[in-house]
Amino acid sequence: MIDRCVAAAGRSMQTVRAMAKFKLALVQLLVSPVKSDNLKKAFELIKKAAKQGAQIVALPECFNSPYGTTFFPEYAEKIPGQSTQMLSDVAKECGIYLIGGSIPEEDCGRLYNTCTVFGPDGTLLIKHRKIHLFDIDVPGKIRFQESETLSPGESLSVFDTPFCKIGVGICYDMRFAELAQIYTKKGCQLLVYPGAFNMTTGPAHWELLQRARALDNQVYVATASPARDDKASYVAWGHSTVYLSEIRQQIPIHTQRRHDLYSVEEKK
Questions:
Q1: Distances (CA, A) of 163 to 17, 127, 160, 166
Q2: Of these residues, 41, 61, 165, 188, which one is catalytic?
Q3: Is the pLDDT confidence value at 4 over 60?
Q4: Per-residue pLDDT at 242
Q5: 190-218 pLDDT, tens per residue?
Q6: Whole-angstrom Cα distance, residue 83 to residue 63?
Q7: What is the longest distance spanned by two Cα atoms in the chain?
Q8: Model pLDDT, residue 201
Q9: Residues 58, 222: contact at Cβ < 8 Å?
Q10: What is the spatial distance between Cα 24 and Cα 97, in angstroms, rounded to a whole number?
């Protein structure tokens, strides 16, 4: 699969705050074992997306590193560091909001799978550490244990733009409906999940989960994946996608919820 940019124009929708029109670009790039090449490629594709009118750009999970527990310690950086400095610089140069996929982060002897988001002036807006670690064992198909090397994040991540409020998760975070519900309660109209579903979970659940989060919460959902590399030790499914819902008025579930009977709340 070749490098590509998948772009979708946001459409106005009625919410607590009207959502402005904007262009969102999802950068699906082929990740190599050479970090400097990955950074150069990401830089070029971000600039290309901005030149095509994108005001918000999102990169995939582990855009600077091969995805795998053996790679995380080798490629990990502190934040700020080489990769996040590049993200800050290109966000400022292009005047865009940049959702920096994720990178392996080292902090105080621990490793995290971390997404950084930068504003049009290059300022770091949020740092989201993957909350739910990808620990699965499908007999005969795939076994992957992120917890062998990574630590989980401990906080939710929301940032505001002139267009809408955005909630961020990473890959496996998308499987947990409660996170999307809380983001929606916080006023998010777009949920972005950089991810790297594999050839087992991708065909089965990648699109289904995005559609479910969009339908349940009546929000836009966008996912950015690495391009598929059949020679990699971990083969990503690809298929970066945007799903939307514009039926808040026709089917007003947000005002019809029985808060007297049930509720999903964020722990402080």
A1: 9, 20, 8, 9
A2: 61
A3: no
A4: 77
A5: 999 999 877 667 666 688 899 899 989 99
A6: 10
A7: 54
A8: 72
A9: yes
A10: 10
- 61 catalytic per annotation: yes
Q: Check 130, 146, 165, 188 and give the catalytic one.
A: 130
Q: Catalytic annotation on 47?
A: no
State the average pLDDT for the chain: 85
Q: Which residue has the higher pLDDT, 134 or 133?
A: 133
Phi, psi for 222 (deg, rounded to 5) = -125, 140
pLDDT band at 11 (very low <50, low <70, confident <90, very high): very low
Let me know: does 58 contact 101? Beta carbons within 8 Å: yes
The tokens of 8 are what?
A: 């979708």
Beta strands (DSSP E) in the chain are: 4-9, 23-28, 56-58, 97-99, 103-107, 110-118, 124-129, 135-138, 142-145, 157-160, 165-168, 188-194, 220-224, 241-243
Q: Which amino acid is at 122?
A: G
- Catalytic-role residue among 62, 164, 171, 188: 171
What are 122-125's contacts with CB under 8 Å, separation 24+?
A: 122/88, 122/89, 122/91, 122/92, 123/88, 124/80, 124/84, 124/88, 125/97, 125/159
- Tell me the pLDDT tens digit for each residue of 239-264: 567 786 555 555 566 665 667 666 78
The pLDDT of residue 197: 75
Q: Cβ distance 101 to 194 under 8 Å?
A: yes
- Closest of 121, 77, 76, 113 to residue 194, by C-alpha: 113
